[in-house]
């Protein structure tokens, strides 16, 4: 970690056991003013981790700290600094945005009405509408407007771009980048990795409840290369493979950067890395 | 207070405005008047059901509030509706006396003791419904089923007592103003049970909700 990078939120040894699934001692830190992508297949533990950060679940072990203060010591104060946005979650779909806002703002002494008006206008939202009348993208923008107006410093986004068309996704990614420019910190959980390639600074990769990577996006991508082959891979390539996916022509093989020259490897996308590593883990 | 306001503005179910008017059933001759209170327990169920459909718990817990406060606000909100029901029942009893009352063969007569019976019924319901509900907020139906069974056992028990228990039959189940002291004490006891039962419901529910894992 560089000297000027401050940890806003840290997760230490977070554990949660369910029948058939365990979150195994997850530890990471969210750097202030950065967008951290959180990737992993469905059921890998992304949402469980987020539930732990937000205090929705009671962990079996570990702790969450915000600016060094344990979540359990100041749960309400810390929550006031967090804006949570989820694509699949819509509250009170038949109430007008005005009603929801009127209720919500009462809980925040630092509510900034000017900022709220500004973001509502910038996002093209009108208060007379109900969430049921908004597109998924607009619902996300409304949730962001609320969070921005109560002075949230950290935005936890759970699959915010799921189910959106490419244009809407692009718009939201631009919004996230604007938030970053304003110094906000974002944890962006998604399996649409192309969105992260556009905006993330860092990557958390979770696999079956275990955190496999916590590093800069570029460093993470730099570690891997993709070799495209027709037919079956030879023994040497198989030995070097970190994951293999079949294609119409043959296969793509994830290899380490050190092996790139030997196998004519090209740069790997985040999606390719994730898919190949998942495939390998599945087969193992 | 903010949470209570939130309950009224976001969680109130439309039937919550209608069901208290069921107190008018007091005017119907030969009716088990305890059933009037059942309609408000139904409102409580609808509120909790609507809350689930609107992801109310997730919304509430992203606000800077404690789980205990969230539970207290919901129960206080429902308790206010119950008290409105009781007050309206009192009004209907006065109207019934003004137009002329007659003995009720289906349980207690419409009178002061009826208020006490309603308060005990709500105490029982709150004490059973809310702790089960807050054990798993995604299953309000289970909590309501068990709460309703208790409510109907209480109503049926009261009707039977009107024919078998001398104190109920000859003191409580009489036209006012007969035995007003005894009926007043019974109703005061009902109010005390209502307050104690509801406070116990808050404590038990908060404890369960504090420990619960909430899935997004």
Write the layout of secondary structure elements.
The complex is a heterodimer of chains A (284) and B (216).
Chain A: E1 7-18, E2 21-31, E3 35-39, H1 46-54, E4 61-66, E5 69-70, H2 75-79, E6 82-86, H3 97-105, H4 113-122, H5 136-149, E7 154-158, H6 166-181, E8 185-189, H7 193-199, E9 202-207, E10 210-216, H8 217-222, E11 224-230, H9 235-240, E12 243-246, E13 250-256, H10 260-263, E14 266-267, H11 270-283
Parallel strand pairs in A: 3-8, 3-9, 6-7, 7-8
Antiparallel strand pairs in A: 1-2, 1-4, 4-5, 9-10, 11-13, 11-14, 12-13
Chain B: H1 2-11, H2 15-18, H3 34-53, H4 56-62, H5 67-99, H6 112-135, H7 140-164, H8 166-172, H9 180-211
Helix pairs in contact in B: 1-5, 3-5, 3-6, 3-7, 5-6, 5-9, 6-7, 6-9, 7-8
Keywords:
heterodimer, A: 284 residues, alpha/beta, Rossmann fold, 2 domains, six-stranded mixed sheet, 14 strands, B: 216 residues, mainly alpha, 75% helix
Description:
The complex is a heterodimer of chains A (284) and B (216). Chain A is globular and about 65 Å long. In chain A, helix 4 runs antiparallel to helix 5 (136-149) and helix 6 (166-181) runs parallel beside helix 7 (193-199). Chain A has helices at residues 46-54, 75-79, 97-105, 113-122, 136-149, 166-181, 193-199, 217-222, 235-240, 260-263, 270-283; strands at residues 7-18, 21-31, 35-39, 61-66, 69-70, 82-86, 154-158, 185-189, 202-207, 210-216, 224-230, 243-246, 250-256, 266-267. In chain A, 42% of the residues are buried. Chain A has 2 domains: 7-219, P-loop containing nucleotide triphosphate hydrolases (Rossmann fold), CATH 3.40.50; 224-283, no CATH class. Chain A is of the alpha/beta class and 284 residues long. Chain B has 216 residues and is mainly α. Chain B has one domain. Chain B contains 9 helices and no strands. The longest helix of chain B is centred in the middle third of the chain and has 33 residues, at 67-99. Chain B is elongated. The model of chain B has no long low-confidence stretch (mean pLDDT 93). The interface between A and B is medium-sized, with 32 and 22 residues.
């Amino acid at each position: 970690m560089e000297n000027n990078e401050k940890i806003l939120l840290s997760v230490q040894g977070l554990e949660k056991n369910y029948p058939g699934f365990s979150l195994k001692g997850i530890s990471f830190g969210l750097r202030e003013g950065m967008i951290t992508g959180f990737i992993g297949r469905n059921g890998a533990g992304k949402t469980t981790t987020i539930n732990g950060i937000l205090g929705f679940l009671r962990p079996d072990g570990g702790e969450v700290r915000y600016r060094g203060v344990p979540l359990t010591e100041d749960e309400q104060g810390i929550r006031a600094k967090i804006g949570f946005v989820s694509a699949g979650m819509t509250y009170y779909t038949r109430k007008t945005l005005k009603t929801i806002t009127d209720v919500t703002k009462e809980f925040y002494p630092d509510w900034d009405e000017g900022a709220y008006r500004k973001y509502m206008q910038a996002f093209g939202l009108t208060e007379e509408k109900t969430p049921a009348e908004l597109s998924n993208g607009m619902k996300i923008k409304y949730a962001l407007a609320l969070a921005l107006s109560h002075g949230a410093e950290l935005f936890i986004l759970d699959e915010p771009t799921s189910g959106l068309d490419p244009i809407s996704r692009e718009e939201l990614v631009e919004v996230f980048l604007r938030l970053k420019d304003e110094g906000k910190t974002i944890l962006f959980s998604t399996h649409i990795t192309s969105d992260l390639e556009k905006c993330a600074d860092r990557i958390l990769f979770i696999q079956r409840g275990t955190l496999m990577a916590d590093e800069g996006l570029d460093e993470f991508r730099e570690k891997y290369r993709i070799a495209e082959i027709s037919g079956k891979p030879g023994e040497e390539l198989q030995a070097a493979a970190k994951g293999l996916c079949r294609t119409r022509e043959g296969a793509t093989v994830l290899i380490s950067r050190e092996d790139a020259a030997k196998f004519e490897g090209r740069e790997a996308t985040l999606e390719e890395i994730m898919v190949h590593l998942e495939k390998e883990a599945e087969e193992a | 207070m903010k949470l209570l306001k939130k309950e009224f503005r976001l969680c109130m179910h439309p039937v919550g405005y209608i069901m208290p008017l069921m107190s008018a059933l007091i005017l119907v001759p030969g009716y088990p008047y305890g059933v009037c209170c059942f309609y408000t327990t139904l409102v409580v169920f609808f509120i909790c059901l609507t809350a689930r459909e609107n992801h109310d718990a997730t919304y509430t817990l992203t606000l800077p509030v404690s789980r205990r406060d969230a539970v207290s606000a919901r129960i206080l909100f429902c308790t206010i509706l119950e008290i409105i029901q009781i007050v309206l029942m009192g009004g209907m009893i006065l109207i019934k006396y003004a137009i002329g009352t007659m003995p009720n063969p289906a349980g207690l007569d419409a009178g002061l003791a009826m208020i006490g019976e309603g308060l005990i019924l709500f105490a029982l319901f709150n004490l059973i419904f809310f702790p089960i509900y807050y054990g798993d907020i995604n299953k309000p139906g289970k909590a309501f089923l068990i709460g309703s069974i208790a409510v109907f056992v209480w109503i049926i028990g009261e009707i039977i007592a009107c024919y078998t228990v001398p104190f109920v039959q000859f003191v409580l189940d009489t036209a006012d103003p007969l035995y007003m002291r005894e009926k007043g004490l019974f109703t005061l006891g009902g109010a005390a049970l209502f307050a104690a039962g509801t406070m116990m419901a808050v404590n038990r529910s908060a404890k369960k909700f504090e420990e619960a894992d909430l899935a997004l």
